[in-house]
Amino acid sequence: MSQYIHLGRFVASFGVKGELVLQHRLHKKTSLKHIEALFVEELRNSYLPYFIQSAKAKSTDEIIVSIEGVDSKEAAQKFIQKNVWLSEDDFKNSVAKNSTVSLIGYTIVDREKELSVVEDIIEQAHQVLAKITVKEKEAFIPLHPELVQKINHQAKKIFMNLPDGLLDVYGAGE
Fold first, then answer.
1. Residue 11 sits in the same domain as residue 35
2. Distance between CA 78 and CA 40 in Å, rounded?
3. Neighbours of 58 (CB within 10 A)
4. Residue 115 sits in which domain range?
5. Residue that finishes a domain, picked among 78, 94, 110
6. Are residues 155 and 89 part of one domain?
7. Concatenated DSSP letters for the chain?
8. Residue 33 has what pLDDT?
9. Beta bridge mates, 6
10. Which residues of the chain have pLDDT under 50?
11. Residues 96-142: tens digit of each pLDDT
């Protein structure tokens, strides 16, 4: 089964021909070249493919997209606020290399002990969190410069020095 990575969401319709504004987290101006389809989350964990007819970069975090089968402002309305996903390969090929979301799939290592693979990145106003699963418990690890010792992009590892007890908060400590 293919893995999907959250790209963003449709935030508005654009014009009268059914175009949609896609707010994304690729952290670069892009027109989604070489990507055939977006996956729209109709129901929780149910992703339906919609083929891209055209896409125009609007800014570093928005794209104007026309998808197959949506040709009016009314038809576009049902997509507003829907989450949009990309296949893992398409996401990795599209994301800015210096973006924090490019760390999805990296392994977090705390003091020489591998914890888990980064499943998602949550970017908030004042901090960036890596979502991982440790001992079947979901945990959110702050990717703060004081905690990150180094990132090895070739090995896809994030070496950290986490505060004692951080994983205990999630019931995932030792």
1. yes
2. 11
3. 16
4. 100-169
5. 94
6. no
7. ---EEEEEEEEEEETTTTEEEEEE-S-S----TT--EEEEEEETTEEEEEEEEEEEE-SSSEEEEEETT--SHHHHHTTTT-EEEEEHHHHHHHS-TTSGGGGTTPEEEETTEEEEE--EEEE-SS-EEEEEEETTEEEEEE--TTTEEEEETTTTEEEE-PPTTHHHHTT---
8. 87
9. 85
10. 1
11. 777 888 899 899 999 989 999 999 999 888 899 999 998 888 999 99
Give the Cβ contact number of residue 68 at 10 Å: 11
pLDDT, residue 102, reads: 86
**Residue among 73, 30, 66 nearest 51 (CA):** 66
Asked which of 66, 94, 122 is the last residue of a domain, the reply is 94
Cβ count near 57 (within 10 Å) = 14
Q: Phi, psi at residue 30, to the nearest 5°?
A: -150, 155
Q: Looking at residue 78, which CATH number applies to its domain?
A: 2.40.30.60
What token pair was written down for 41?
């989350």
Find where tokens 């049902």 sit. 78
**Do residue 11 and residue 56 come from a single domain?**
yes
- The pLDDT of residue 20: 96
